[in-house]
Amino acid sequence: MSVLRCALVFALVLVAGQVLAVIETYEFSNPELELRYRQLSAELRCPKCQNQNIADSNAPIAQDLRKLLYQQLEQGSSDGEILDYMVARYGEFVRYRPRFSGATAILWLTPVLLLLAGLVVAFLTLRSRRGSVDPTAAAPELSADEQQQLQALLDKTEKDS
């Protein structure tokens, strides 16, 4: 009985996700504009949600941006003009792939710098470990007492096995 209830709850959760999906239909003058609309709406980030593009967001500002995008496409604006307008209005943050500039250089270079720093730390750590253990160094000499203790331990081990 509990398996049936779990399956029912799971099915309801799946259906609830479909209810929250973005439902907007725009009549495009040609199929090329619709393709550009889909590409640009996936490229632009919702200013409110911050982790969703405007195509996936139900926030009112995302709805406004989708409408604005549709209007600009129908007016004949190029992709570059539309992106420039959105960046001028909302900042470079509105793009999922911001342009490389002085202001966004840290966004682009930080992953590379962190990778290089990790490689340097790993190299130095391995180098220091390798330097601390010298495989060519001879084992230290044992005193007569230590040799007797070692021999006693070895003899005991042989008797036990």
How would you characterize this protein structure?
This protein has 161 residues and is an all-alpha fold. It has a domain at 26-110: Orthogonal Bundle (Helicase, Ruva Protein, domain 3), CATH 1.10.8. Helix content is 64%, strand content 0%. It has helices at residues 2-19, 31-43, 60-74, 79-90, 105-132, 144-160. The longest helix is centred in the last third of the chain and has 28 residues, at 105-132. The protein is elongated. The model has no long low-confidence stretch (mean pLDDT 82).
Low-confidence stretches: none
Tell me the number of helical segments per DSSP (H or I, 4 or more residues long): 6
Q: Report the radius of gyration as a whole number of Å.
A: 33 Å
CATH architecture tag of the domain at 26-110: Orthogonal Bundle
Tell me the span between the first and last alpha carbons.
58 Å
What do we call the CATH homologous superfamily of the domain at 26-110? Cytochrome C biogenesis protein
- Specify the helix fraction band: 55-70%
- Principal-axes shape call: elongated
Tell me the series of helices and strands, N- to C-terminal.
HHHHHH
The fold-level CATH name of the domain at 26-110 is Helicase, Ruva Protein, domain 3
Which structural category fits the helices and strands?
mainly alpha
Strand percentage, roughly? under 5%
Query: What is the class of the domain at 26-110 in the CATH system?
Result: Mainly Alpha
Number of DSSP E strands: 0
| Mean of residue pLDDT values | 82
Brief summary of the model shown:
With 161 residues, the chain is mostly helical. The chain is built from six helices and no strands.
